[in-house]
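Protocol step 4 of 5: obtain the predicted structure for the target chain.
Materials: sequence only (see below). No template structures provided, no constraints applied. The aim of this step is simply to have a reference model before the mutagenesis design in step 5. Sequence pasted as it appears in the construct record:
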Amino acid sequence: MKRSLPFQTLSITLALLFLMVNANAQLAAEFVFRNPTLISGVADQDGAVYKFQNVAPGLDANVTVVGRSGPEVFLDTIDIPLSNGMGYDKALQPQIGLHSTADANTSWWLKLKVNFLQAGTEKAISISSFAASAIDVDGDNLSIAENITMFQANSVATSPSSVLTSVLPLTATCPKDQLTGTPVDCGYCAGQGYTVKSDGSIQNCSNCNNTGKLFSVCGHPWIGSDIQINGTSANALGIDTLAINNMATFSYANTNEVVFSYGATTGDAASSATQRLNSLWFKSFNYSFFSLLPVRLLDFTAVARQSGVDLNWSATDQKDFNHFVLERSTDGLNFKEYAMVSGTSNTAAISYYKYTDQAPGNARVIYYRLKMVDIGAHASYSGIKVVSINNGKTTTAITAYPNPAKEQLYITMPASWTGKKAVAAFYNTAGILVKNIQLNAVDQTESLDVSQLTRGLYTVNIYCQDTNLQTRILKN
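Step 4 output (structure tokens):
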């Protein structure tokens, strides 16, 4: 089961979320979900409807259990209260699980719908602009990795050091001309969805229908797309917005409902930690503000050499910063600290760091990450970098993970390929080429989008100059 800690009060100012209800401008920083009442259906079953009163001034909300991936999925509680000692009581916190242990390579989900209503009535209210932030999207430190899908969201934002992956690029079909495109910022409102008049009042942007986005192909207002965010199996310490590596903020415009599903998958091992506490806080977060907690990481690379593994990174905005802790793992789950590098404190300039791991061990694959710590002992983690080594010699093999893969496939390349052009070719079991990906400047760990591949077994060939390396993957 996920561990939870009391919510920590932020010491920074969050950007205001501008909210419009009908024609009357109303400012609100968040929607608050507390004390639900079952008003229809059977508690925790599909079709059950819960009333949340006064989620914002003049607004109520109904939360409906839409469905689930199978009868083995149960909803324990629609919203964990603060008295439980877990999470944050302003957020909508459904607790979802399985009736039994989850086998390896399985997945499950439960779908919910939130409808906004005029307070004290069942009259639908369309909200012009709001946000929903998924907090603590993590795992069980063994096999489980959580995910959340927000349907018809305008956009998603994560921190620069996020460990989450998203299914991108976003695509949708414009209802006006049936052209398929991706979202781009509206030039009139600079992607804000609103403009500020000379008297200080806020005016919806009619150019983009206050979504802040336009279709790339035709310039019509963006309508949103389904966005899935996938966590890792590593467990984060509690439901806390200081853990920005495990957070994602989704934006919405011109709608009176939000449909989303919380779910999870297992990797190559079974797990009994299937009861998961999920936290969706209807509040906007601007992750650029978090660059001071404790540092903004600009770049991080890990490259295997004959002398060891060279780790290079750069950082800026190092206000009250103290040090980096280098961590490594042989399974991508259990990390151990093995070195510390002092940081440059109280500077906005870019600082460059280097460390060579001269004794990475005998494992063929090594996982690396940085723990960044400020003077107050607050910490944040970088993304994970993976290298392939072979007893200190230059490797001529490639490694693919996770395997089976679902959305993203990570492939480690030989160090000698770094910076060179390469091609990743996917062949099905009949030997037919089904996908080609051009790599213009190879990094030692390349992330490849395999979300569009159908389920099955594939051979992956990586061509670089006159060399062809091969591996096999299973697509879930």
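Step 4 remarks: The chain has three domains: 18-170+224-289, 294-388, 401-475. The two ends are 25 Å apart (CA to CA).
Proceed to step 5.
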